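User: For a reading group we're discussing how well predicted structures match intuition. Take Molybdopterin oxidoreductase family protein. Before you show the prediction, I'll give you the sequence so everyone sees exactly what went in.
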Amino acid sequence: MNVATPIIAEVTPAKRKIGHNSVGHTVCPHDCPSACALDVDLTADGRIGRVRGSADNSYTAGVICAKVARYSERIYHPDRLMVPTRRIGRKGEGAWQEISWEAALDEVADAFVKAEARHGSEAVWPYFYAGTMGQVQRDSIERLRHAKKYSGFFGTICTNMAWTGYVMGTGALRGPDPREMAKSDCVVIWGTNAVSTQVNVMTHAIRARKERGAKIVVIDIYDNPTMKQADIALTVRPGTDAALACAVMHIAFRDGYADRSYMDLFADDPVGLEAHLKTRTPEWASAITGLSVAEIEKFARLVGTTKRTFFRLGYGFARQRNGTVAMHAALSIATVLGSWQYEGGGAFHNNGQIFRLDKSELMGTAYKDPDIRMLDQSQIGRVLTGDAEALRHRGPVTAMLIQNTNPMNVAPEQRLVRQGFMRDDLFVAVHEQFMTDTAQVADIVLPATMFLEHDDLYRAGGQQHILLGPKVTEPPPTVRTNLFVIEELAKRLGVDHFPGFGLDERQHIDKILQASGWGSYDELKRDRWIDAQPDFETAHYIRGFGYPDGKFRFSPDWKNGPSPDKPPANVGPQGPYAQLPRFPDQVDVIEVADAEHPFRLATSPARSFLNSSFSETKSSYEREGRPEVMIEPTDAARLGIVDGDVVRLGNQRGEVRLHARLVPGARPGVLIAEGLWPNSKHLDGEGINVLTGADAVAPYGGAAFHDNKVWLRKDAA
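Assistant: Thanks. Here is the predicted 3D structure of Molybdopterin oxidoreductase family protein, as structure tokens, for the group to look at:
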């Protein structure tokens, strides 16, 4: 299991004294569905000590991941950015001059004004993402964007395929209470390495095993830490999850596990689905997935005979070019079996819809211009290198403000990304905590607070709480919040009179809560969180699914159907959406291995990192070791590769060098590179995302990070 803080017995009040010390309460802000409630030990002089999961939060249940438990290592890191700096050498050379906050913000605003004067307001592209999941610190940048008519930001790196596939079936982004995993008789963890990335999932699944004798099934593409916790571990080839799901449903119809009376009431076309699945046999799926027929039959029999089966559907298996279809197919099993009817049953992915947070004033949506172009986050390399389609056939981007993300490391098509950032005519301001790969190529670098040093509001997609994350320690005097930067730029750019500006964090939080019907800031401060989980009937769709007719869609409208990530009308459906199947099916729009590229590469998350966060802390990078690629031993032997060799991986986008690690738990022909490591930690200064593509995934966009065909050879050097 994950190295994590233990469940503590006592319930902590708002602030508990420990001798001369005390305990503060806040929320983990990082890009993770768990949004853990935290208890933070504070010394008498206000410094943080140990960070623990809150025992009195029913989802966090006293357990957090090891990397957050060691947060003092990050907040007091000697390399943390502390003062604003201006680049004085060539981009990327690392020559910096310390400047004042006033001068830095003046230069940023001046660069934006000049960019707009030359090419129009769309020449400025505010770029951000989920380095913090705090609503105020993350989303205030949108208010500045809308006020100034800067280029829009279409976020595509994370959720598009998974959320779209789920909502295409259910009509809503919500599901059973995730705490119900503890009440299940079978927990299916599909496409998420929860031990490494969502430890709380394991908390509740293990409880079901201990208290109910529940079976845990894990479906993934290699033998990761979560697979080692499984009673049944199913290792599929990347991009073949839909084939497994179809075979399970075929068996359910064949062997009488399908709940026909349930489907007659709550599904759109069960007759059509059954007819479609007639040829989707276990033998058919075995040839595609690499699983044996016996493995498929055993899994189908287990879930078919276990009414309380909880399908916990992750993001990983959706990060393929057929990922939307794969999510929908896996989700459909719960409807065929009627699992939704039972406590501890159904299918859960994300609870995003239940929170109903009204952020219109925070984000300035009242003055959003629908004619302003929306640029794809994942295609930043294409945008910055002048690709006409990526630019929506409009002018160039010549100025950027970047908060909460590190595109020089995390974005696909890294060689294009680097080429774009190295343009002499591109001005970039980066607001960051460390000198990331992106900060290294900036013109102005601004030091940012960490979550323990400011107030914010959080909502937990992987659970059901709205949580207050108050400041528990004072920041260094020379660093500033995201909100501060947005407010100061608004003043310099002449839009600070627009609604939403001029408020501090607590005022924003109070307005959001009151506008959303969740009370007030003071009430949330008193209670620490709000349990927003809807009643059983709503969560389990007992009164019908989210479509007007209440029917689950086995046959969704891939072109016009609902999604929280639906592109704006001026972008429209993306990718080869016309090839998506009418019913759940295996659809081969993935990068299929071929003679020139015989391997499939997935860039899975590392246990001690979170995207590019925590890679700067000593304990994390020492635990991870170095950038490596996992190779199945028979593949390695065939290529004359031994453990520790330097190897090259490549495709049409470029090539990288890293060390080989032989592991027996992957399918032959499958390579795994866990990360993300900073580019500088790789042998040639280029990271694994050199090999990943930015082509939009059907139907509503997204980046297929785990879907890459590559060649592999031993390095000749």
